[in-house]
Amino acid sequence: MEIIHVSAECYPVAKAGGLADVVGALPKYQQQLGHIAKVVMPMHRTKFLYNNEWETVHKGNFSMGAMNFDFTIIKEKTNKLGFDLYCVDIYGLLDREKIYSYDDDAERFMAFQLSVTEWLSKWEHRPDVIHVHDHHTALIPFMLQHCYAYKHLSGIRTVLTIHNAQYQGWMSWDKSPYLPAWDTWKWGLLDWDNTINPLACGIKCADKVNTVSPGYMEELMYAANGLESLFNYEKDKCTGILNGIDYAVWDPEWDTYILDNFSLKDVKKGKALNKKKLCDDFGFDIKYPLIIFIGRLVGEKAADLLPEAIQQAFENSESKFNCLILGSGETAVEKALEEMKFRWFGYYHSQIEYNEKLSHQMYAGGDFLLMPSRVEPCGLNQMYAMRYGTVPVVRRTGGLKDTVKDYGEKDGYGICFNNATVEDIVYSIGRAIELFKNAKKLDEVRHTMMGINNSWETSAGKYIDLYNSIYK
Ligand code: ADP
């Protein structure tokens, strides 16, 4: 099978979150299963672009409303990622450092999708599957079926993976002329609540739709940021496939970012050495448990609850602990977290940035990883933490519910709570501190979770089954 993944992000080329990790790993594992998997993404101006060699494979042009654009497709020369990687360049639109958050994102991602479709339309053969990821690429199934210029591609199977249904790419109907001439009887496929909603359109038009965990798909049936009735209507083509983690990148035995490599055999010593480095760097006392948080500082991750919860835990807890936060996001949350540095100096530190290396060091050196998420489509952090012997402390939601079992249950290995509230977080921090004091139990929990196989092998096969379930 030849599968084309179309995505805004791909690790290690450009990453904002879990989407990049998935698109950087799934194709590699699909290749290992004997398929041809390729990735097409925008040519963001990241380090990866400048540090690697590229060849131009296509030059073309397209119109977007009254505007005309030239585009170039380049390919990474050495198959460095384990699959063919293509990047689309459009002068003035995709030649930026950041992936998102520009005022013209609607135009940028529309242009990206137009370039990809235009390029595919020039191929001499057809791929078997076009696999689009999130709203930035979700108009492609519509374009293939209902734009006259691309009708000859309409037989290609399409799959939409939803990594996050909160963001839907809404745009006003004024922008409909951006699409190449299309069958206007089909306007209802683009529309949701009087706006063009690319995610909703993808759900309606793709042959199959999946989310990145079964638990999240169940939740979307009643909480989908306005799309609940659509998910219910389309439920027969919707499924949940749990993300895996890339064992080639996330392996404490080989990870080049961490100070001391370790495995299940010497986890206690390995974690102690990595923890010591973190404690030295941030002025913590190694004898206290180290609780970490890594992620976007936004409402979905319940980051707004962290300042109050951590504060209360410090004030109420009879036992001491350390807390290290890595993330960036909402200004008010960043500010509140930064202010706590002074009051809890020696026990608390926040690092407001995106830092891949530090994140690996934290997974390796932390004792507990806190994830109080309100919404968590899959969550990769808890799986990375488990692989690095760090106990996840999670709210039972979406993929967290699917991947973490409370250590109070039979064969359990994490700490789970029900509500994204300050009370539940404080209580769970208390449970983490208690577990830390029980060295034998902690050791047992670490061994159980490090023994769990969360690699992509199983999930990559499930995607192949999903493609095969579409008959054209
Ligand atoms: P989401 O995609 O919703 O942000 P996921 O749990 O699916 O959440 O994936 C988050 C990914 O981004 C993980 O690889 C995590 O380590 C990484 N990450 C998030 N914030 C940061 C940060 N500030 N620095 C480094 N890595 C981060």
Architecture overview:
The chain has 472 residues and is of the alpha/beta class. The chain folds into 2 domains: 2-244 and 457-470, Rossmann fold (3-Layer(aba) Sandwich); 264-453, Glycogen Phosphorylase B (Rossmann fold, 3-Layer(aba) Sandwich). Helices cover 36% and strands 20% of the residues. The chain has helices spanning 18-32, 47-50, 105-121, 140-146, 187-190, 198-205, 214-220, 228-233, 267-282, 306-316, 331-343, 356-365, 381-387, 398-403, 422-437, 439-450, 456-468; strands at 2-6, 36-42, 54-64, 67-76, 84-89, 129-133, 157-162, 191-192, 195-196, 208-211, 238-240, 290-297, 322-329, 348-352, 368-371, 391-395, 415-417. It is globular, with a radius of gyration of 23 Å. It starts with a strand and ends with a helix.
Instruction: List segments where confidence is low: pLDDT < 50 over at least 5 consecutive residues.
Output: none
Q: Output the CATH topology of the largest domain.
A: Rossmann fold
Helix content: 25-40%
Strand order of the largest sheet: 3-4-5-2-1-6-7-10-11
Question: Which structural class best describes the helix and strand composition?
Answer: alpha/beta
Q: Helical stretch count?
A: 17
Shape: globular
The mean pLDDT is 97
Q: Can you summarize the main beta sheet?
A: 9 strands, mixed
Strand portion: 15-25%
DSSP summary, beta strand count: 17
Total domains: 2
CATH architecture of the largest domain: 3-Layer(aba) Sandwich
Bound molecules: adenosine-5'-diphosphate
Q: Tell me the distance between the termini.
A: 14 Å
CATH homologous superfamily title of the largest domain: Glycogen Phosphorylase B
CATH class of the largest domain: Alpha Beta
Gyration radius, rounded: 23 Å
